[in-house]
Amino acid sequence: MSSKSHSIFRSNRCCLIITGASKGFGRILAKKFANQFSDQFTDDKESIIKFILIARNVNEIDSLANELRSIDSRINISKIITDLAETKAIDDISQEFERNQNNLSRPYDHYILIHNAGSIGKATELCKTVNVNDADKRNAYYRLNLYSVMEMTGIFLRHIETKPNVSHCHIINVSSLAAIQPMSGMLDYCVGKAAREAYFKQLSNELTANNDSKRTKTKYRLLNYAPGPLDTEMFRQLQQESTLQEQFREIIPLKPEDSADKLFQILHEDKFANAAHVDYYD
């Protein structure tokens, strides 16, 4: 099946924001979006796609930026080198959104925000072992995996509100089976993923209310996508350090490219309920 048949672009002018973009699933998604855009708008010189890449490693982001530019010269890139576990990261992102708004001669019609960044945390934690001495580490964990998602989405929504011509907006939360199923030893990971999905269900409810009152013309599509066990550093960490390491060693991980293809198919078919949890294996 050709890449064009799985297109999710609703406009030839799109702004795409990806957290955790420097490696793993985020990097694969960035390249897939670039190739998809280039294929779909091959001969359209008015087309442009803006990537806002958010990650901690400057060398990896620079190499990704070079790869994206080699795919299509119409690709415009902003890089935010920051740690989402720190509050300063949200200021960095807010400032970039402001620059993006002021430096644009013609507005984007389609925005895509992908919350991909995340961490496992301590993979041997039980409810009974939680104690106040770990409060600082736990706060840093939830700042990265939950609070930054909520705060960044708030900035993003306020940004969209200033853009009356935005027709479509996708917000994709890279989730996990852990959001809906307990996993021994992975307390913070399960709680964080479940809380993120609860947040997006709340957001969906608010956006529905706004649409019902005709206060926005933007069509919002929200998705909690569980990509399956991917062949990444995070999966290898679970095989080596988690309470469930024996079970994870028996699992054959998926290629990130295959899971990215499935995500594009889901978005293209556009049959999911807003804020639905959709797994690679569904």
Give a structural overview.
One of its GO terms (cellular component) is cytoplasm. This is Sepiapterin reductase-like. Keywords: Cytoplasm, NADP, Oxidoreductase. Its main location: cytoplasm. It is found in: Cytoplasm. The protein is α/β, with parallel strands linked by helices. It has a single domain, classed as Rossmann fold. The protein contains 8 helices and 7 strands; from the N terminus they run βαβαβαβαβαβαααβ. It has a 7-stranded parallel sheet, with helices on both faces. α2 links the parallel β2 and β3. It starts with 12 loop residues before the first strand and ends with a strand.
List the keywords:
8 helices, 7-stranded parallel beta sheet, 7 strands, single chain, Rossmann fold, alpha/beta, 282 residues
Topology:
Blueprint: E1 13-19, H1 24-40, E2 48-55, H2 58-71, E3 75-81, H3 88-102, E4 110-115, H4 135-161, E5 168-174, H5 187-212, E6 219-226, H6 233-241, H7 245-249, H8 256-269, E7 276-279
Parallel strand pairs: 1-2, 1-4, 2-3, 4-5, 5-6, 6-7
Subcellular location: Cytoplasm
InterPro entries: Biopterin_syn/organic_redct, NAD(P)-bd_dom_sf, SDR_fam
GO biological process, one term: tetrahydrobiopterin biosynthetic process
Please outline what is shown here.
The chain has 282 residues and is of the alpha/beta class. The protein has helices at residues 24-40, 58-71, 88-102, 135-161, 187-212, 233-241, 245-249, 256-269, and strands spanning 13-19, 48-55, 75-81, 110-115, 168-174, 219-226, 276-279. The protein has one domain (10-279): NAD(P)-binding Rossmann-like Domain (Rossmann fold).
